[in-house]
Write a structure and sequence with these properties.
CATH class of the largest domain: Mainly Beta
Structural class: mainly beta
CATH superfamily of the largest domain: TonB-dependent receptor, beta-barrel domain
Shape: globular
Radius of gyration: 27 Å
CATH architecture of the largest domain: Beta Barrel
Number of helices: 8
Largest sheet: 22 strands, antiparallel, barrel
Length: 763
């Protein structure tokens, strides 16, 4: 009810000037169908004797649906952006009361399909997501990089930096299951199919206490979780992959959701694939072998992913959900060389895969109490076999993660103002690392296991006038192996004032036992260098963080002004987890980083046709390692001081166009001494991270057009260009010694001008 009142108030503000005389819902729906090229499905009895105020022409489709929901007290479910089911609301359950407490603060936070809630989180609905520059499909992990404070310093979805953190400090959940791999093509494409993802919640701070791990952020993805007895499916392709998905009702009580995607990179050598390959395989063993008296050929690369979810409503109050996910990347190539006047050929290969499965039981005990119980297993495996013909050497490397977890959650609603939630989580994580060399003979196998227990509770309070929202919770983590107990308080407070302003305070303590490290830059063929490790309470401690943020938001007349300042400190990081390529590359010390910053967003929706936004972030991010740099602080490897993004979208009927500019100052880099003498097989470096790479600039554009094939089938054709100006951006710079002890400078470059096209059919 509170959500409805708030949305109704926003709707009236936007609908100034339109007629307030109500009309029959039948005529209103016909108008909406023609305006947005959609179709409504409903029983005559459902809309009988229903009346509604006309929908403003300035509304986007999601805004129009929200308006209709508040006016008619009916439920509207959008399927594939063209087919909408209208039905009477279900009987009130505890979960809906919970929804009342999740008041939407800002709709169209950047574009349609992205909203900001009063608990500080950002909610993304991929199925209703508007177009973004450079993207023709709603890639989840690319989309979140448009949020202020979120950046990928190397343009990948496998290295997302949230407020100065490393990628392994993000907790990524797929239907409640922790994932240890996030990308295809070694980071250029999200591993999660956006056409089956129903909702994504991103928490940068003030994380609910039910979430452990992820000292920088939580990215929580969900597939549809309710039966609707409606079939829908889709097929599509672009210049990298083909995919398909389907939601199939099996009976009134069961449903199957499936999706599959496979690359075409081993079948067709497209221009997009060439650019992706150039970006990912630069400075790897695949390319360096060409300059070391050997030749790489017969290169073969492909990836695929499969997901499935089975829904079974045993009764109205008891539900079972079964989850399965598999993602795989494979690369192999032959290395040819002439040794002692004889040609030799050996096959090097790299595979990266994740498999996860789980089962969830949902129970509605009564109108106030609900619970869920989930068990899952998540497995990650990274394998590489690398041959060096010139040295007659074979190296086998393997990194494997096993994560088994059981979670029990409950929610109890006292009334529309207060809800309490809590639960318990058991987790057993085992991580192994193998290195096997034949010449000279060497084998190392290390496996660590950590069992943890966590109990958590949280109170959610909403004032009677819906202006104040308070979340306060605590998570208690017990690690028997280390005889440690860690307490993590969480806080979220939101206060609306002067109708159009909102003040926000978010804070949290968090910890995590898993992290990624780099032993050598040529590990795993130099392509996927990072390996997962577990804390051992000595040289790899438990990572701990504390963070506080305050913000103020103004939202009126399609203007959004938002500013949020924050401070964060993360302790327990290691030099090996930061990827140093300077004088600290081969040392192993424990330290911390501190970051202070501000994120600003200006968003203006001129009409339903044109939408624009401008975001700016400023931060100072410094390392502190007591054993390094004379105990003085120095810039973090991802200390990017200034980040600026400007974008605009244009929509006319079923045509959408987007263009945007991304700018940020260069990453820190370490230069070498001009009098460098490499005769002692070493490089003399200057002050760590004392200089900066050139500034980064990228312009992207994209366009899509949707058209109907039949009443229930439509198609979407799209085209995009990444780095339209073909700007040469240096992502990383470092120095190496060759066999003659000469110092060589290496620069890793970003993607150049990269076009892509897509075609998709939804039915």
């Amino acid at each position: 009810m509170i959500l409805s009142l708030f949305l109704l108030n926003v709707s009236f503000l936007k609908a100034q000037g339109i007629s307030k005389e109500k009309q029959s819902l039948v005529s209103i729906l016909k108008t909406v169908e023609e305006r947005y090229n959609v179709s409504f499905s409903f029983a005559d009895q459902t809309i009988k004797n229903k009346f509604c105020t006309p929908v403003s022409e300035d509304f986007s489709l999601p805004e129009a649906i929200e308006f209709l929901e508040t006016q008619t007290n009916l439920e509207y479910e959008i399927l594939n952006n063209s087919f909408i089911i209208v039905r009477a609301p279900k009987k009130k359950k505890t979960s809906f009361s919970i929804q009342n407490l999740e008041e939407v603060v800002i709709t169209n936070y950047l574009t349609t399909g992205i909203t900001k809630l009063n608990n500080g989180s950002i909610k993304i609905k991929p199925q209703t997501l508007g177009i973004l520059p450079g993207l023709i499909e709603p890639d989840v992990l690319q989309t979140i990089q448009a949020i202020p404070g979120v950046l990928s310093a190397d343009e990948t979805v496998s290295n997302i930096n949230v407020r100065g953190g490393t990628h392994d400090q993000n907790l990524i959940l797929w239907d409640g299951i922790k994932m240890y791999q996030s990308g295809h093509f070694f980071g250029l494409i999200s591993a999660f199919n956006p056409y089956t993802t129903n909702e994504v919640n991103v928490y940068k701070n003030g994380t609910p206490s039910r979430f452990g791990d992820g000292v920088s952020s939580v990215i929580d993805m969900y597939l549809p979780n309710e039966l609707d007895n409606q079939f829908n499916a889709g097929l599509g392709f672009n210049l990298i992959n083909i995919d398909g998905h389907a939601k199939v009702p099996l009976s009134k009580k069961t449903e199957l959701q499936i999706s599959a995607r496979r690359s075409i990179t081993d079948l067709i050598n497209t221009v997009t694939f060439k650019q992706y390959s150039k970006r990912i395989f630069q400075d790897s063993d695949l390319t360096s072998s060409r300059s070391n008296n050997s030749i790489s050929q017969n290169e073969n690369f492909y990836f695929y992913d499969i997901s499935a979810k089975f829904l079974y409503d045993i009764t109205k109050n008891d539900k079972i959900r079964i989850h399965f996910f598999n993602v795989d990347n494979n690369l192999d190539y032959d290395e040819l060389s002439t040794v002692n006047n004889q040609e030799e050929a050996l096959n090097s290969k790299l595979s990266q895969r994740s498999t996860a499965g789980g089962i969830t039981y949902l129970r509605n005990w009564n109108r106030k109490l609900t619970s869920s119980f989930q068990m899952y297993i998540s497995n990650y495996d990274l394998d590489a076999t690398n041959f060096n013909i010139n040295n007659n050497q074979r190296l086998i490397q393997e990194n494997e993660v096993y994560d088994g977890s059981a979670k029990l959650d409950f929610n109890y609603t006292f009334n529309h103002q207060m809800t309490i939630s809590g639960g318990y989580q058991f987790s057993e994580i085992g991580i192994s690392n193998l290195a096997d060399i034949n010449n000279p003979p060497f084998r190392s196998y290390i496996k660590e296991v950590i069992i943890s227990h966590a109990g958590y509770a949280e109170v959610h309070f909403l004032s009677n006038n819906a202006k104040s929202k308070l979340n306060f919770g605590t998570r208690l983590n017990v690690f028997p192996k280390f005889s440690k107990t860690l307490i993590e308080p969480r806080l979220g407070f939101s206060q609306r004032f002067l109708n159009n302003f909102r003040f926000e305070v978010l804070g949290e303590y968090k910890n995590q036992t898993t992290s990624q490290i780099i032993d050598r830059q040529n590990d795993f063929l130099g392509i996927e260098k990072r390996r997962w490790v577990l804390a051992n309470n000595s040289d790899i401690p438990i990572i701990k963080s504390k963070q506080l943020a305050t913000g103020i938001h103004f939202n009126k007349n399609n203007w959004l002004l938002s500013a949020e300042g924050y401070i964060k400190k993360v302790d327990g990081i290691t030099t090996r987890s930061q990827g140093f390529q300077n004088q600290y590359q081969f040392v192993n010390h424990v330290g911390s980083y501190n970051i202070k910053g501000i994120d600003i967003l200006i968003n203006k929706q001129f009409s339903s046709i044109f939408h624009s936004w401008l975001s700016y972030s400023y931060s100072v991010n410094n390392y502190i390692f007591d054993a390094l740099n004379n105990s003085n602080s120095f810039p973090n490897n991802v200390d990017i001081r200034h980040i600026l993004t400007a974008a605009g979208t244009y929509t006319y009927n079923q045509f959408k166009l987007a263009a945007g500019l991304n700018y940020h100052t260069g990453k820190p880099t370490t230069t070498i001494n001009e009098n460098n003498n490499s005769s002692n097989n070493s490089i003399l470096f200057n002050t760590p991270n004392g200089e900066r790479l050139p500034d980064y600039l990228r312009v992207d554009c994209s366009a899509t057009y949707k058209f109907n094939i039949s009443n229930k089938t439509h198609a979407i054709v799209g085209a995009s260009i990444w780095n339209l100006l073909n700007k040469r951006n240096v992502l990383n710079s470092y120095y190496t010694l060759d066999r003659e002890n000469n110092v060589n400078k290496v620069e890793n470059e970003s993607l150049g001008l990269t076009p892509n096209v897509s075609f998709r059919v939804q039915f």
